[in-house]
Each structure stands twice: as C-alpha cells, then as structure tokens.
Amino acid sequence: MQTKTSNIIEAMEWRYATKSYDTSKTIEDEKLDILLESVRLAPSSYGLQPYKIFVIKNSELRNHLKPAAYNQSQITEASALIVFAAKTNISSEYVSDYISNIATTRGVEKSEVQGFGDYINSTISDFSDDQFTAWNSKQAYIALGVLLQTAAELRVDATPMEGFSAEKFDEILSLKEQGLTTAVIAAIGYRSNEDTMQFADKVRLSKSDLFEII
Q1: What's the pLDDT at 2?
Q2: Residue 78: which of 61, 57, 64, 60 has the closest Cα?
Q3: What are phi and psi of 115, to 5 degrees?
Q4: Which residues contact 141 (CB under 8 A, 6 or more apart)?
Q5: Could you tell me if residue 189 is left (phi over 0), alpha (psi between -120 and 50 degrees) or otherwise beta?
Q6: CA 44 to CA 139: how far, in whole Å?
Q7: Which spans in 46-109 are helix H?
Q8: Distance (Å, rounded) from C-alpha 152 to C-alpha 9?
Q9: DSSP assigned state of 3
Q10: 88 and 129 in contact (C-beta within 8 Å)?
Q11: 191-211 burial string, b = 16+ CB within 10 Å, else e?
Q12: Cα 89 to Cα 136: distance, rounded to the nearest angstrom
C-alpha cells in the first residue's frame, strides 16, 4: 500500500516542463478550482500575498502575448496561461487592509492585531521600488512552486516560464497602471502524446551533491 509520501514523490517524478500541449484538452473546472485554491493558500512573507494572479484562457489575448514570450508554443497550446504579477510597492493602506482582514477572519478587534501591522510597516518603510519588486516577486515564486506541486498531484501538466519580456507583458495586460509587474508565468494543461520530453529521464543532482546535513 502506497503511502502519501510515496505518492508525492511519484507525482514529482511524473511531472516535467511540458513542451507541447494537447490543444483538444482543457482543464476540468474542478481541477482548476483546486489549483487556484492551493495557490491562494500558498505561504508568503507576513501572509501579505503581494501579487495578483491572472488566469488567461482567452485565445485572442494569448495569441497577442505569444510574441512577447518569444513565440513559445505553450502560451497558446496550453489550456490556460497563469501570470504571476508582483506588486511594485506595498502601501500602508494595503497593510491596513490586510490587518483588517486578519481581524475579521479571526473574529478579533483590529486593535488587537494592529501591532503586527505596525511591525510590517516599520520593516518595509525604507524599501525602494526595486526592493519591493524583488521581494514581492520572490513571494510570487513561492506561489508558483505550490501551483507546480498541486498540478503534479492532480496529474495536470505545467510549464514554469521565465522566457518572456516582462515589459511587453505589462503593457499588454495594463499592469503598470495597477502597480504590478510580471514576475513569472506558467502554462497549464495536458501534455501532447507527441511530446518526447515526457519519456526522458529526469536529470537532477544526486542527494550527496545537493544536501549537506550538519
């Protein structure tokens, strides 16, 4: 009888960065909901979730985005394109709204958790826009990792992608006006039977080369 641990490893061995998708297949709504909920529950520094995630199904829009991703076929072949857009700043108002959300969710007075908000504001008060973008992008990558793991367990294929022009994506999606910038993208869907990379052995460092137990 397989354990949950072995199922997780099996899922990670199954997944790969899919190169070619089956355009006749779309992700079932139930699976997409699970994927998005797992991303919503992903950890982030202070729990701030300083990003917005766009789930792009529209084929016309994806055709428009494809040249900005160096014409990679996954952009249009996959069932959907996920764009992780990081905030370029974190305002005190955003932090205040977050503290209000904590209070409402946990059924306490905002004053009881305001000290946490003050601590966050004091920590990030001297950040430059570049520091905000870098920090927030790291949080988006954590969410990407959760997406990839969940997709593997659901046997949904996913391709994390950094080969794109963030500037062009931002322009096409009107992100600058929203105080956002594209951090990373991922195509999700189902692999094509003709994608030979699914049969290739997975190449990773050995445990002895990767890990050092101190």
Answers
A1: 54
A2: 57
A3: -60, -35
A4: 84, 183, 184
A5: left
A6: 5
A7: 59-65, 74-77, 92-106
A8: 10
A9: -
A10: yes
A11: bbeebeebeeeeeeeeeeeee
A12: 8
Distance between CA atoms of 171 and 167, rounded to whole angstroms? 6
pLDDT at site 74: 98
How much is the CA Rg of the chain, to the nearest whole Å? 19
- Quote the DSSP letter at residue 91: -
User: 49 in the Ramachandran plot: left (φ > 0), alpha (ψ -120 to 50) or beta?
Assistant: left
Output the pTM of the full model. Answer: 0.95
Cα separation, 187 vs 79, in Å, equals: 8
The pair of three-digit structure tokens given for residue 188, joined into one six-digit string: 């999700």
- Burial class of 139 by CB neighbour count within 10 A (0 to 12, 13 to 18, 19+): buried
Ranges of the chain whose pLDDT falls below 70: 1-5
**Please, what's the b/e burial string for 148-182 (b: 16 or more CB within 10 A of its CB; e: otherwise)?**
bbbbbbbebbbbbbeebebeebbeebebeeebbbb
8 Å CB contact between 74 and 21: yes
